[in-house]
Amino acid sequence: MNRFFTIIGFFLISINFCFAENQKPEAEIPGQLQKDGILITQKTYKQIFDAYLDDSTPFITTDSCLNAFHVLYEESIFRLENRQADVLKAMVDDLYQSLLSPKAYDSFHFPREETSKAMRRAKLVLGVAKKIYHPEFVIDDPELEKDACLEISRINQGSGIFFPKWLGEPTSSFAGIDYSRFKPRGFYQRNDKLEKYFKATAWLQAIPFMVNRDTDLLSFLILSDCLYKLRQNYAECQRYFLFFEVYDALLGKPDGQSIHNDFGNRNLYRKDELQSFRKKLESLNALQINDSLRGEKLPGKGIQELRIIPARATPDAILFTLTTAPERNRPVPDGLEICALLGSKFAQKQFPPQLLEIIEKQRNIANQNNCYSSYLHLLQSLFENDFANAPDFMRTTPWKIKSCNTALAGWAQLRHTWILQAKENVTYLGAASCAPGFVEPNAAFWGRLAALAEKTQTILEATRCFEQSLKEDILSYQKLAELFEKEEIRTIIENHPELLEYLETAISAAFLINSNIRNEENEPEKRKLIAKALHQLTDLIKNNELQNDPELESLLSNRRTNLRELWTLLNNTCLKLQVLSLKQLYQIERSESETRFIADYGAILAKIMLYDGNSYLTPNDDAPRITDVFCDTGTNGQFRYLEVGISRPREILVLYPTPEGKVLCKGAVMPYYEFFSNTRLNDNEWQKMLDDKSERPKIPSWLAPITENGALSVPEKTKSGH
């Protein structure tokens, strides 16, 4: 749950800051706003709901509810991935154990030497994943252990480009591994379990098994056969099946074949059958997205390489592959291609006819039955009609620019959530009286967002990620206990942001376990007592003894927000906004409850964004998000990564026309950024860039016309608190 932690009575009184006011009085309406009807100003908020908590006339933007969707969505996927991390760890352990069994050879009638060579390859790839989870694990083959240790070192370093010798000779289709792909980003930095899961998954996504090499192909078949045999157990079958299938429902199909594709559902493989199996693979659809360092174009047909867990082929990544193909002499994509694909006339005007023809041919790639495609269909509503009965300013170029920013800010947040599972592209080598407020009048958008929220909730319910599991929190409480033994609480807060969500509950639990902590005046001794209490807490959870202390059990159970209720609240909120937008368009009077709903919109939005009670009054400054979506290998060996993201919310002023005259109202948007970086950035690095005048990138040139002064400056911060 989101909040600024204030530990009552001792240790810490939070130091907060606010952004200095730099907005002109409402009476001084800028000429740009009078001309265009909208203007993104320099006024900055920590969270988007901040814009709707004062007495100003609100303009409820699609951006605001979209941002709330993403906060709730990312927290839900965070919980899902915590469960998936446990499944992958078990799968790696089980598969590796299967390789050690003599029965692993039973299905393969090959010369023993060939089978042993393929088995060693499988053991090395899986062994590296196993060492990520179990650093103390040692492969029983000294040569393989040496290679695995080198890979672990490179993975943990998270930088550099290498071609491991054990992969054989480099080819034009696979020239090496960019080890920066193993650098955990996004919410995968929130705990140690997810960091390991990120690295292990990225490793299993990265290593190719070449179809034209017998050892590679046989090694892959051995792994697939091992998984098939594990799935003969019904419970394991359900567990592993759901591990793969949930991503199909949320993201779409994988780009390529995985060990989940039932290649191992045979009792016998013979050497003379290997070629026919290879031909079968070559008859399948080719990979759609290149995420490897290669010197040639992807083949038009056939599977040339296999991955244990291939990443997912999203429509935007497929589009970027087509628009940056080598023969087009266009090495890097542009985010506006997404808007052009979704129907934005403004975006389409930014590209030459040849490129538009390519984009137009791909209009149907998002028509798939998964949440990612449904999300793109939602964004399409920002561009697909002329907003009948809507104010004239919504038909102007400035509004079309605003719609592009809304769509791309949403897309950047979606890619941020799926930074691990989605496949990344790599190139080839005012009024006198106060009105009650307005809703952005796009009924199709609100209706589709409600439907998407319901669909997402249904899929996530099936994974049981909404269920409370205190045992998932044990590692975090153990880590806090260790930190309290040697560090001051302020140091813990500064150096371990991933533990902040557990901190307040942990200290409250320590007080319940040992009430004498409150009376201890010596701070180092107080920390030791808290550490001891937290060790006791983890033992209680492990031993299922919490039921003996109902107050403690209730405290821990209530730490997690009920996401199921919040998805329902989001769905209902969108449906209300859909009705309100239609009433607004057709000038139908609102009910008293609808007027109260608009007045309370900021607090409702805050609740959806995980701010319980009145905690939204001191919001966290963690809205900026960044993710890399494309790797440009360049021509001089200097890699660049296309970063897309959002900064802190900014105020948007709107002159909304009414029969009585135009009303000055305000809302908020999430400014979109797109730029190249020499390294892959995480959210903390991005926020530091935003706060540094010399490092902060410019907003896209197309966004400047609707932005005050044509740019967004670094917000001035003023400290508050003690």
Summary, kept brief:
The chain is of the alpha+beta class and 722 residues long.
How would the global form be characterised? Answer: globular
Q: Tell me how many strands there are.
A: 17
* Largest beta sheet: strand ordering: 10-12-13-16
Query: Which structural class fits the helix and strand makeup?
Result: alpha+beta
Distance between the termini: 24 Å
**What level of helicity do the residues show?**
40-55%
What are the SSEs and their pairings?
Elements: E1 15-19, H1 31-36, E2 38-44, E3 59-60, H2 62-100, E4 108-109, H3 112-133, H4 142-157, E5 161-162, E6 177-178, H5 192-206, E7 209-210, H6 214-230, H7 234-250, E8 269-270, H8 274-282, E9 305-306, H9 315-323, H10 336-342, H11 345-348, H12 353-361, H13 371-380, H14 397-417, E10 425-426, E11 438-439, H15 443-463, H16 474-484, H17 489-495, H18 500-513, H19 523-542, H20 550-557, H21 563-585, H22 592-599, H23 601-608, E12 625-632, E13 640-646, E14 650-658, E15 661-669, E16 672-677, H24 683-690, E17 717-721
Parallel strand pairs: 3-11, 4-8, 10-12
Antiparallel strand pairs: 1-17, 2-14, 5-6, 7-9, 12-13, 13-16, 14-15
Helix pairs in contact: 2-3, 2-5, 2-6, 2-14, 2-15, 2-21, 3-4, 3-5, 3-6, 7-15, 13-14, 13-15, 15-21, 16-19, 18-19, 18-20, 21-23
What report would you give on this structure?
There is one protein chain. The protein is of the alpha+beta class. Among the domains are: 101-314, no CATH class; 470-557. Helix content is 46%, strand content 10%. It has 24 helices and 17 strands. The strands form seven sheets. The chain has a four-stranded mixed β-sheet. A three-stranded antiparallel β-sheet has the order 2-14-15. Strands 1-17 form a two-stranded antiparallel ribbon. Helix 2 runs parallel beside helix 15 and helix 18 (500-513) crosses helix 19 (523-542). The radius of gyration is 27 Å and the shape is globular. Residues 1-17, 21-27, 430-434 and 718-722 have low confidence and may be disordered.
